[in-house]
Automatic annotation (TrEMBL):
PANTHER family, alphabetized: LEUCINE-SPECIFIC-BINDING PROTEIN, PERIPLASMIC BINDING PROTEIN OF ABC TRANSPORTER FOR NATURAL AMINO ACIDS
Similarity annotation: Belongs to the leucine-binding protein family.
Source organism of the structure: Microvirga makkahensis
Gene3D superfamilies on file: 3.40.50.2300
This protein's UniProt keywords: Amino-acid transport, Signal, Transport
CDD domains named in the record: PBP1_SBP-like
One Pfam family linked to the record: Peripla_BP_6
Signal peptide extent: 1-22
Every Leucine-binding protein domain range: 25-371
Biological process, per Gene Ontology: amino acid transport
Protein name: ABC transporter substrate-binding protein
Amino acid sequence: MRLTLTIAAATAGMVLASAAFAQDIKIALIAGKTGPLEAYAKQTEAGFMMGLEYLTKGSMSLNGRKISVLVKDDQLKADLAKTLLEQAYNDDNVDIAVGTTSSAAALAMLPVAEENGKVLIVEPAVADAITGDKWNRFIFRTARNSTQDAYGAAAAIPASGEVSIATLAQDYAFGRDGVAALKSALAEIRPNAKVVFEEYAPQNATDFTASAQRIFDALKDKPGRKIINIIWAGQHPLPKIADLKPERFDIEIAPGGNILPAMQIYKNYPGMEGAIYYYWNFPKNAMNDWLVAEHQKRYNSPPDFFTAGGFAAASAVVTAIQNAGGTDTEKLIAAMEGMSFETPKGTMTFRKEDHQALQAMYHFKVKADGKDSNDLLELVDTISVDKMPIPVRNKR
């Protein structure tokens, strides 16, 4: 009897251990699917799911465990994002979380990850503070930050000759962070270029006449090249500024990258140059080739700005779990610090000091002869990681 009970207990223990080992890998994907950045969130989700599919060869399983993704809409609200992450960690028992779209919402989520001792991969929010003064050791970011955008924009500016720049940005953290980062980047890699005027407009601004006039007045008498650098999320002010004919004063416009629907207007300004995080036809690697072909097949369009970001986040998750041998948080952190992983953009590496993913950017020129509405940009140069000395700004 005692032997039978011992064997039964041992067998039960093996069954329980096996069941625990086979438990789903649970991932929370939090995104702002309701509101003005809905397109960004949908792209992130599509890219994340396609990334998991590609990296697991369609099995949606890893190390013998099924992958379960819980998608949650924070509606771009910081309080809701915080609540959803708390629920994901405590009620849903997720192993790892990814998100979110709004920088304000992402910042609200950071202390939740620390309090619960669970990893949060930030994608696609860009505010510098996320891997800066608000950072903690549970935070990793596959998304580029405002400073990486700024170094890309700076690298796309000529390295010689006097250049005067005026900025037009939205009057909130994203815009102001972007301008501050651009000024620092110029000082570091383009000392021949200076920001001589800063213009901030409301996030929902539609009339830019007064802003443009102030910018023109600030630039028109400057020697050398004169450039308006636009830092904007959502409906782009480029047409409104261009309609006021800055070329009268030999002023150029340098927009940042954006999603394809927002960049449709770029085709009206062939030869215009700027920097972008991702454009579907720039990276040349097998992963991006698959993403472009499959996205075209499924959605009748190439993958977009944030589709690549979602895919990169999926790659970070899969690579981390493989390298850590499971989902234990401390083992994940140890595996992820300094970890390199493949993405549609090529290799990214989580910097050990602040867990920011170091990654290439792209200098583009608007095509004059694109064959369709998504054939917009030509590659001038790939701006490699070593050309962007991104400073560490956290408290570590």
